[in-house]
User: Fold these one by one.
Assistant:
Number 1:
Amino acid sequence: MANKGNKKRRQFSLEEKMKVVEAVDSGKRKGDVAKEFGITPSTLSTFLKDRVKFEEKVREATVGPQRKRMRNALYDDIDKAVFAWFQEIHAKNILVTGSVIRKKALNLANMLGYNNFQASVGWLNRFRDRHGIALKAVCREDSDRLMNGLGIDKVNEWHAGEIIKLIADYSPDDIFNADETGVFFQLLPQHTLAAKGDHCRGGKKAKQRLTALFCCNASGTEKMRPLIVGRSANPRCLKNVHSLPCDYRANQWAWMTQDLFNEWLIQVDTRMKQAERRILLLIDNCSAHNMLPRLERIQVGYLPSKCTAVLQPLNLGIIHTMKVLYRSHLLKQILLKLNSNEDQGKVDIKQAIDMIAAAWWSVKQSTVVKCWQKAGIIPMELTDSNTEAAAIEPDIAIEKLWHSVAIATCVPNEINFQDFVTADDDLIISQELMDTEVIQGMVASENTDEAGSEDEGEASLPQQPKITITEAISSAQKLRWFLSTCVGVPDAIFGQLNGIDEYLMRRVTQTLVDSKITDFLQTK
């Protein structure tokens, strides 16, 4: 009896608890799972009851999966400030020793007003355990060490080594690349020179920018729904809008953050789980990407640091093509307003979202494939010369469009269409924290993630009246009549219009059916 009373109680890490829960989720009997892991039925019941709590901890990366308890730090705000700083350093692949972390902790503690805090070795060990940090391996991956510059030998070495291992078990349909870009969505041609090279770290111009995340696969057969981040959480132009061609989020600077990126990743992981797919996702190591959630169906591969300009497919022409198409939409709108003697009103967020999404879906599969080939991730193949020639023709049309608008709006001669397209290429897309900003984040309770007010940065455009389903059907009928008076309209256009008609009629029919049923029930 004495021996039984002195039996040491077994401690389970969060990772071990997750394995137990997953075993139950797989369909195994609870009794069999308890025997397999050597636990009592009551312990198993406790794991299942607390699953939401530790799943959330692991997903948010607030503790390491090897942690056996979820006890909070004594100086919780110091702990959060140091960890936020560590995440930034970790993303930049800077080697950090324990003594460096202790010194930084003391500095941040003083800034927070703690004069008695001691960054002891014991505190450091507890800090490492809380966040699952192994100081002997603070760099992201060995592949990050392959390239400190853009030497061709290092690029070839990565092509011959790391990437072959990453893509070995995946088809081009299941290899994806995701990347963000900044967009000055209200930029006019005559203001190109002022915007060129602007990093837009804050201030008035932060209200005129968006950050867009794009993701596509190597075969060019799948482009994911864009994620667009603005500054205004509830812009006036989105009132009564319930469907958009993208996902829209907002924060104070219209930047990508860890929380937003992880939310997007979890959504993609859920879709892949539902489709019973496993994918490889290649990303860079910007600060928004450096602490990922627990993923079941996505293997993440990091592109070598400082080499995304030559190794990231989206950076090799895909995003540029999207911007060419987006700026072309803007030029067409400007030309139409000039022709009708209308003022050049500012673009609002909804118009920008619609045009960005339309530009993204219009990027051709052949363009996507060529950029993946240029990155050296999938093999080069022979291209059709006719396809190449056809791709040049739209560029000529766009140049003519630019020339017309440039003359009418007095654009300086030294500015060309490519300057207009690339004016926002240098925008900061994720936050780089300084010590003062870390402290502000602790004191202001996540102020850096708060969105701007609904009116800030939004163009002063009249609110659009709500359109009824009957009006929408009438407009579609008018559009069909207009197209029937035109010459040479492609069959695909009529096919798309048929799809719109079908959707509208299905909506109005369902509405009428529901109202009839309601009337019938009320008379009973």
Number 2:
Amino acid sequence: MLGSIQARAPLSGAGQRQSTQGWGAAAAARHPRAARRAARTARLLCRAEQETTTVTTTAEAEAVATSNGNGNGNGNGSLEKPSRGAGAFPAELLTAEELAYVAPDDSTKWWTGFKLGFALPWRRFKQNSVLAFKLEGEISDQERTFFDSGTSLPALCQALRKAALDPRIQGVAIEIAPLAIGWGKVQEIKRHIDYFRASGKYCVAFMKQAGEKEYYLATACSEMYAPPSAYLSLRGFVTGGTFLRGVLDKVGVEPQVKRIGVYKSAGDQLLRRTMASEQREQLGAIQADVVEEFLRQVSTALGKSRQEVVDFVEAGVYDTAAFKAGGWLTDLWYEDQLINELKMRTTGLRLVEGESEKDKEKREKELAKPLRRVGLRKYSSVSPAAFPTLGVAGGKKRIVVLRTSGAIVGKASSGSAITPDGVIPKLRALAKDKSVAAVVLRVDSPGGDALSADLMWREIRQLDAVKPVIASMADVAASGGYYMGMAARAIVAEPLTITGSIGVVTGKFNLSELYAKIGYNKELISWGRFAELLADNRSFSREEAELFDASAQHAYESFRNKAAASRDMAVDDMQAVAQGRVWSGNAALKVKLVDALGGVNRAIALARHAAGIPADERVTVVELGKVRPSPTALIGGGAMAGAVMLTSLLRGQSPADALATAAGASAALGMGMGASAGGVDAAAAAAAAAPVVGAVAREAAALAAVLQPGRAAYLLTDVDALSVAAGSSSLGGVMGASSLGGSSGGGGGSIGEFLEEAGSEGALPWW
């Protein structure tokens, strides 16, 4: 029952306390404040890894909650059920500006200068420097490890906030290349660029190749530049879906899939050849929200009317000179021209009429030196404690941002994934850590395994009974991702987050026709009327089909009813907005599936309020959860799908995994990749079809990874492409039309760091 939430007893033990105190005393002798922070972080991480399952009685749970003085999340020690949803927070907290820039006073400036003056050598750089970095491809929602050179959203956002207050930073220069992130992350980045610009410093965007999403982000900057030969294309938006039924028929595979919810489109990928009307309806609604936000931002940033933006897109302008002439770009510059301009800004040296030869020589000598720049990796090492107005360091109470990203699966293999074994120990450790006042659960997931989602839902509810949990949604938090978020006390989503999809898909593959084609036979000896329910060598019997349908309906009703209870809605009201339908964050707010619009900082503000922390009290914000590096998956196709399938089965793969391999091979065969083997035509066809074959195989592999035979899945599939950026995919989702024939690469990107010259600061990779 949802109301019977049990708290967890805090870790105890004299030996453990003695060990911790001894380590802390030794560290404190060297640097007391740093040692205390390091000790708290070490304890948190150790508990997350070593936590074992303990069950407490209801009486013990009440004692713990009362002794912590935070039983209902408001600090009064009461065990009454905490208020949930938007009604538990002041209206102004839900709608006020999320990131309001506050100029530091003189004493704060002195403190910042003092801290920066004694910074470690590898954190130092020259005054009047430019923070320069490149945004391209995937930007992880989780922090990256030291040896991972990729960009993470937490590091990027914190760098922009620090740079706004850092007296050494004169401005920011960003090269925006084709992005492989969703609109939710783009809006979070834009919000932090707005914060930086509020400090009065300049922010420069440079684009070599850009579509609608990249241009949208660039308009947040104060200046936009591109080389004359840049690929800038604003042609509108395309929404699409992919369907595998034709591929499966060629292979000889019959998908027997049950999906509950008229909008639940995950099964459509396997069952249909064309898009259903319900799918067309929900995709059209989401696309309309994306288009409206694009028009609003571009028109506001450039001082143009909405109709002017529409007319420009409809004109299909491809000449960059027209971009400049119409005021859609600041100027057409190559990168070296931008470097020269920034050198003059950082040094204050410009050509002056009538200057002496001595002054000219001095100016030219100074401008010949490398640009004063600092890269994102080096700048990320600057401590936020030097900037008190950020409000993220220096407090005794901590708010932990627990970031989860990827598909929800039972066990992690490779790549980004959310698993109970990875998340639940952290939740239990956070419940027991008395220094943690509240938790922000960051979710970036299309869902996945139903059991895993439910186990984590339960633990999130358990944690929320001890201290407030606020959910923050990134690009996508749908189906199982929403299942996790709905356990929190309140939900915050970006206006263009993809969420909802409260529905179920389950099924199995009937491989009898494939087996017959390749001469493979399987015979089963069973006991029990439904023992062969999931057999892959035959179709369902009537009784089996009825049982299968009933189990899927049960899984859906469980999801829907828990969603209704979690959101304090009547079941009938939840049914009206469930049915597997996906919503943008804007639409989800209207139907009460989320409580506020915004990003992580909005969620932190709600967590602070729910924990009863005064607005003027400093807290420490701690990030928990890092990207797990994984090798790149290589997907190829064979000449005969049946042979590939048979080989995979004989090697011990499950039928679903073998199907993923065979699907790619079948698509390759159907497009002529098997004809004229070794000939020029075959090679050309293979090269042309490779992206499509890879995409088809990835679609099948993604389904196979989550859709285990007979197990219910809370999964969003073909709508996932909605979270993919323009230019990163040509097969589906809301993307810029320019991406349909474009590449996801940098389009002739520069070697090394953006705006980096030989000998410039930040050239050393470990800096």
Number 3:
Amino acid sequence: MHPLQVAASTALGVVACVLALLVPLPRLATCEVKQSCKELGQNVTTRVKLYMKAFCSDDAMSATASVSQARVLARSSSKLYQTLKRYQPSMTWERLPFKIWRWQNVNDNKGEKLQSMEIALRGMEMVVASKSPIPSSLLAGEVKEDLKNIQERVILSIKRVNNSPQPSVTPESDPKKPDECLQTLQEIPETPQDLPFYFFLFCIRLLETITMAKPEENKVKVLEKSKTRSWISDWDSKKVMPALKLSLSLGLAILLGSMFSKPNGYWAGLPVAISFAAAREATFKVANVKAQGTVIGTVYGVMGCFVFQKFLTVRFLSLLPWFLFSSFLSKSRMYGQAGGISAAIGAVLILGRKNFGPPSEFAIERIIETFIGLSCAIMVELVFQPTRAANIAKLELSRSFHALYECASLFGAKASKAEIMESQKKLRSHLNELKKFTAEAHAEPSFWFSPFNFSCYEKLFKSLSKMADLLQFSGYAIGFLGEQGKTKSPQCKEILSNVDKDLKSLTESIGLLAKSFEEITLLKSLDALEKALAKSDNTSWDIELGKTPNPSFSTAVSEPEKILETYLQHCRSVADGIFRVEEGGEEEVKVDKSEVVLSLSALGFCVERIGKETREIEEMVKEVVQSENPSSHVNLHEISCKIRSLYK
């Protein structure tokens, strides 16, 4: 009868979960997604207002305060996006009751469209967070009033995406009405100090374009391709490995736990089973918080049994405040979900028992069994995944540089929009992995290894993320220019080729630099490189001989100002040439002069910032290599030449 009792208890637990989900108010996944989308819409509109306030403010203190408020909202928006990601897969199970009771469902694309607005908001923050002030001459006259009109129209578009209550469309908020402040942009800025103003306006226009864009139809094709996959391909190592690890951990924990105490041996499998994650996680950190949570919950249970020895009902009621406390632990950064659940179960197993002997004796056995189970889990984890998180973070850093190299190379190759978007998506994916493994490496103990340089990896992640944003902005600007120059005369296309050459030169330099950093970060040590070089008897790496020149360290890093100056000169000739061609009578299609100026200026801003981020990335890579080789002198150019001479 024991299996039937276990099945009945499990069914009772499932019923309790469903009741807790519906009573007193239903917390369906659809309701959670709908509420998150509503809060995200409010979050985005508030940040737009704060960024616009900081941009138009004459007081530096007021602008700084607005940026600080916007950063707090940006952090809360990332949590809301995590909530969307968590609950959206569960919405498919709730479509049937929504159809039966005719409730209003949530559009799946709404959260994706709100998330796609983040790139424009990050660009606006990039401008207002920089300490370089906007020239007052650019904000003179009625520019501020025009910007407020644009802000109201953008906010109206965001509310339309989120299906929020909105006023009727007035002539001032008509999307098709031209903006006076944008129409006055007829010349390329003379100095780099004016570029942030133009880039901010470009981000506002980009935000409005995203809000009014139609949902992409590519997902249907991707879904059809995924259905044609063989079921055998689903049985890959990423799905089999977690099941194998869990099975071995549970079996070994219960075996060793039964050898210690046969009546209570199965409790050793409990800490392994709860909060088991299929993905890789910080093993030692999770084991630590599970052990602490179990001990805290067990101590609370023993104290409750001692205080309420003769009152069984009160003992059960004493679990309610502990459940509340455990929920706080689950949401804390120190304990997380694993620690909070362990604390709750630790108290339940003591206070929820009767006629099982003295609670203190069971508590001691329970703690010992917990440590047996956690030790088995750590041992199995080390056997199947012996690679340290620090080494994986280093490998992921190299992969991020390779993805950056591919992304930059596509800009010079005139790739299609789909290819550029796919490369940017790949770069974002590697950066997310880098962030995850960096946090895991920071949490794991160093033991006899050298300490992990967490601060440097964190700075590298931020700089690479900014670089990815700037490349994405460049892609949007090039796309807008392409729309303006699609059906223009051959003279216009010839004029635009000069700008293409500048961008191609810059992206090639960035690509070569990223390729060099990819090779450098893959090095095990500088001593190993010297030994490999000595065995190959290759001396062509000598910089003075000039046999292996590395152009990547001479353009994007050392001369970003010169590149920007040349680019702005070509942009002026482009704008003047296009406008002259149009005035000469060759008006196949009307050219939007403000769009051309705005896009070219936005590209200029990206060129300037890419140069700065490149120099910062070089310094951080040098610091990483130096921390891994403390007794060696680090010269990245020299190291790159040695690597290229070794593998050529």
